[in-house]
Design a protein that fits this description.
Elements lengths: L6 E6 L6 H17 L7 E6 L5 H4 L8 E5 L16 H6 L2 E6 L2 H7 L3 H13 L3 E6 L3 H5 L3 H12 L11 E5 L13 H15 L12 E6 L4 H9 L5 E4 L6 H8 L2
Parallel strand pairs: 1-2, 1-8, 2-3, 3-4, 4-5, 5-6, 6-7, 7-8
Helix pairs in contact: 5-7, 7-8, 9-10
Pathway: Carbohydrate degradation; glycolysis; D-glyceraldehyde 3-phosphate from glycerone phosphate: step 1/1; Carbohydrate biosynthesis; gluconeogenesis
GO cellular component, one term: cytosol
Protein name: Triosephosphate isomerase
């Protein structure tokens, strides 16, 4: 039997859902998975609830096709970091993945490539899988510097001095200039950007990475309609979905792809 790499559907719930809504939504997802097991043979669903709701949601997660993720992680295991969440706590709450460098963390919390690199080291050290978000700014886009910007991000985040051996690494192309747009990036432009990222990862400076363990996803204003086109692409290993993942009707349509 040939091995078929599963595609990711990652739902980032941000703080869109309260505890009651989170429980209702996760129950609908898990019930759907139980009723349609063959539909999940080629998919892996990762849900990132608000940190305060993870402990409530975790007991409802069963099976191998759906797992939990943290939306971010502290730069240290413990210490005087008010409002942060330790990687140890995420692991104890059965999170297997962690979002790092999300565009909103970069824009609103001053996250940098260097801080993302340091966090990635902690995440891999504790056996969790990093979901690393990268993407150029509007200024880079207009100045035709997209490739240079992404190269710079990869060089910093995946530097050997930070990177520890990991069975799996997920990279999400999430261009900052698409945030809040109702119209998602075209399939052709998305594929072009992901191919560029794949080619950059083949450079000699990244020989410490195992290319087979890297998945390259797209994230940016995805809805149920646009997800269909992205899903059919052999270049895109999955999707990071924001608001559409908090509506069961929209998310169900994406899971059914």
């Amino acid at each position: 039997m040939s091995y078929m790499k599963k595609k990711y559907i990652i739902g980032n719930w941000k703080i869109e859902l309260n505890q009651k809504e989170s429980l209702q939504t996760i129950k609908k997802i898990t019930n759907y998975i139980k009723q349609h097991p063959t539909n999940l043979l080629n998919k892996k669903i990762v849900i990132a609830p608000a940190i305060i709701n993870i402990s409530s949601v975790a007991p409802l997660i069963t099976g191998k096709n759906i797992v939990l993720a943290g939306q971010d992680v502290a730069s240290k295991i413990q210490g005087a970091l008010t409002g942060e969440t330790s990687v140890v706590d995420l692991k104890q709450q059965h999170c297997r993945y962690v979002l790092l460098g999300h565009s909103e963390r970069r824009l609103y919390h001053g996250e940098t490539d260097s801080s993302v690199a340091g966090k990635m080291g902690l995440v891999t050290q504790h056996g969790l899988v990093p979901i690393i978000c990268i993407g150029e700014s509007l200024q880079d886009k207009k100045g035709h510097r997209s490739r240079q910007a992404i190269q710079r991000q990869l060089n910093t985040i995946l530097d050997k001095k930070y990177f520890l051996p990991a069975k799996e690494v997920i990279i999400v192309y999430e261009p900052l200039w698409t945030i809040g747009q109702s119209k998602p990036l075209s399939l052709a432009e998305t594929e072009k950007s992901l191919l560029m990222i794949r080619n950059l990862l083949k450079q000699s400076r990244f020989t410490h990475l195992q290319m087979g363990s890297i998945s390259v996803l797209y994230g940016g204003s995805i809805n149920a309609q646009s997800a269909r086109d992205y899903w059919q692409s052999s270049i895109i290993d999955g999707l990071l979905i924001g608001r559409a993942s908090t509506s069961w009707q929209s998310f169900k349509e994406i899971i059914k792809l």
